[in-house]
Amino acid sequence: MKNNKVLFLASFLLIIIVFVAGCSEESSGGDAESNTTQEITYASTSDVVGLSPIDTNDSVSSNATFQIYETLFIKDPETMEIQPLLAESYETPDDNTWEIKLKEDITFHDGTPFNAEAVKYTFEQIKDPERAAPRASLLAPIDTIEVKDEYTVVLKTKEPYGPMLSALSHTNAAIVSPTADKEGDINKEPVGTGPFTFVEWAEGAHVTLEKNEDYWREPAQLDKVTFKVVPESSTAISMLETGEVQFLDALPSDQLPRIESLNDVEVQKSEGTRVSYLGFNMEKEPFNELEFRQAIAYGVNQEAYVEQLNGLGIFNESIIGPKVFGYNEEASEATYSYDKEKAEQMIEENGYSGQSITLLAANRDNYMKMAEIVQSQLTEIGLDVQIETMEWGTFLDTTRKGNYEMTFLGWSNSTADGSELLYPNLHTDNINASNYSRYNNEEFDKLVEESRMSVDQDYRKEKLHEANLMAIEDAPWIVMEHGMVTAAYHTSVEGLIVDPTGSWSLYNVSRK
Amino acid sequence: MIGLIVRRFIQLLLLLLGISFLVFMSMHLAPGDPATVIGGPTATASDLEAIRKDLGLDRPVLVQYVDYLGGILHGDFGYSFQTNQSVSDAIITRFPNTLKLATASMVVAVIIGIIAGILSAMKQNSWIDISSTTFALAGVSIPNFWLGTMLILIFAVNLQWLPVGGLSSPIYTIEGMKQLILPAITLGTASAALIARMCRSAMLEVIKSDYIRTARAKGVKQKSVIWIHALRNAMIPVVTVIGINFGGLLGGTIITEQVFAINGVGRLMIDAIAARDFPVVQGTVLLVAAIFVIVNLIVDIIYAFIDPRISYD
């Protein structure tokens, strides 16, 4: 009797919870509803930084801007061949001149006409030091931008610039509406020519886009697109399962078995351009000695690591990966493949036995897993390896200053061009910046420069191959894996293709 | 009472000044450079220099701090390094979500905690007591992250009773309440456990005191003994725990917000720390500190109501 009140209160509460939980169940399911509407919700691991292609540089922002803005050229997501998009055609009267004819009768979402002036305006903004565009380097080789007539723009470079078309097809070189940029903040109110127009950005929560009915091609089939911020991958997967979101990308390898077991969910996996590597600080002893790097290269068994990735990694020790321009199969055979005995022998012969080294690993992505595997492999060949872990912000600062011996890093090659891998990462120009290994080799530098300064694509490919072979032999890096690009989506989603750089367009996507 | 509030308010200002200094300095002196994070791996040394100049990070730290304080006095908490949004706007957009979550969790914690605490004190060493103390032990030991994920798997994925995450619908709608249930249980469980333990021991102590024995001897019914005579006196330590916990909940929603994809202050803070977004980190830490102090002041005021012997004047 005495406890009745308490028990009653407790049961009452339970009943309310169950009632609230139980009622309007049909609205939580999403599945039934979403089958009939042309809407899609994508779960993004973080919020966009901004919505201006000029002022942002991160992949999350690019996913959204790619649907709103368009570039002069675009890579075919399957073949990676570069095709005109806003451009109609182009000519190169000489090695330093690119005359680009633009498509006519296209307008931006705000009604501003798309023409040569808009291209000139956008490119000048990207190059403007005051604006400090994070990807200004894409267009740095362009010296002048001239408007020849309303629909022809002429780009002149000081030196021949081989990766020009790759640069012009990069999402950060997308053309923005000059009116919108001058009069407002396109980082918050984006205006492009793309198949989707901007509706809303609730910071930290979601970005919403809708179909551009006046699109210059056939309008997209989706009416509404939402980029929803879901930081936890396991939560995002649960949402995919319940129908709260319909699409995820960059799937974590440890969650893959769970995703693949879901009903009504399809998984897309294909080879990507990202490379992950074990990099040495070539200014520290004994990492400046080729024999030491070679011994480690022989001692690391990348296959054992790739096997742990549930199929989300490709074993290939070439620095330029199979999906990157400049790759030649020969390179994958010219590497220091795993040979434990040889590694042990080199360690012993050169007096490195028991050498104590610190392996720095950032506590994100798969770096910790790599560190543990490599530590045990190198211990087996007679080295004393300590792992030091760091949070990402601290890690970037430490490695950039060269305060490390060896570490893991990756490079997502967003142009899929070998020059854009070798130049930023291994050219002497970028020591103290993105050349974390501080690799310094004049001959290599020359090959990379030749690959950048020619517009003859066969010649470029040859130079890149030579540079690749040279870097493999010098071993400033030991490639751990080449990445896969992945997506998981509800079976009602059709027409989605993730290209090797990991980007995707929703233009051809529909719900059935 | 007014004297107390004024005194506490002055203390609050001094405390916030101290905290702002500590946070400012620790962010600036800690390893990790905002320019490196913003510039990304492709930035050159001169790009980084330009970014630092643009953010005003090239000036001496103390000058930056004085500048920052000056801004705060004018109500300007600065702009995010990442998005260039005003810090006050960023916090104002997200704070309602954190407040909703913390309040709902506290409601869950107080109801479960007090009921469990009283029941186990009344029936000491019975199965109710044993299960309630076991719950309390489990509640404080289970990590939020795991509990949240399990609740999602059971109630959202398998039973499909509740949504997985988000807090987009208004609280007064059924959808809004449904969105709050799992995060509130996740965040409230540990506090419920603490409150239950505290409530149990406080009740046991009070029940054994002389005046309760006298009341019983005079033939007062058990119900009145517990609810009227004992509970009020057992409430003082419980209110302290509730107060401190609520302050803690408001600042400790990070993991729950992360797991349930809730756009709150906790997530804003953790993202800002990772991105070395100094102004946002400073703004959110100051907010959490201020709330903690204010909640404690409210707890002190409530004491005076519960126990008239307590006077602050």
From TrEMBL, chain A:
One GO cellular component term: periplasmic space
GO BP term, pick one: peptide transport
- List keywords of the entry alphabetically: Signal, Transport
Homology family: Belongs to the bacterial solute-binding protein 5 family.
Q: Which Gene3D superfamilies match?
A: Dipeptide-binding Protein, Domain 1 (3.90.76.10), Dipeptide-binding Protein, Domain 3 (3.10.105.10), Periplasmic binding protein-like II (3.40.190.10)
Residues annotated as domain Solute-binding protein family:
81-432
What are this entry's molecular-function GO terms? peptide transmembrane transporter activity
**Protein name per UniProt:** Glutathione ABC transporter substrate-binding protein
List the CDD domains hit by this protein, alphabetically: PBP2_Ylib_like (cd08499)
Name the lineage: Bacteria, Bacillati, Bacillota, Bacilli, Bacillales
- Tell me the SUPFAM superfamilies matching this sequence: Periplasmic binding protein-like II
The record's section on Pfam families has: SBP_bac_5
UniProtKB/TrEMBL annotation, chain B:
Give the UniProt entry's GO cellular component terms.
plasma membrane
The topology of this chain with respect to the membrane is: Multi-pass membrane protein
Subcellular location(s) of the protein: Cell membrane
What residue intervals traverse the membrane?
101-122, 134-160, 180-199, 285-306
Using the record's annotation, list all stretches that form the ABC transmembrane type-1 domain.
95-303
What keywords tag this UniProt record?
Answer: Cell membrane, Ion transport, Membrane, Nickel, Nickel transport, Transmembrane, Transmembrane helix, Transport
GO molecular function term, any single one: nickel cation transmembrane transporter activity
The record's comment on protein family reads: Belongs to the binding-protein-dependent transport system permease family. OppBC subfamily.
Subunit details: The complex is composed of two ATP-binding proteins (NikD and NikE), two transmembrane proteins (NikB and NikC) and a solute-binding protein (NikA).
Full protein name? Nickel import system permease protein NikB
Where does this protein come from, organism-wise? Virgibacillus profundi
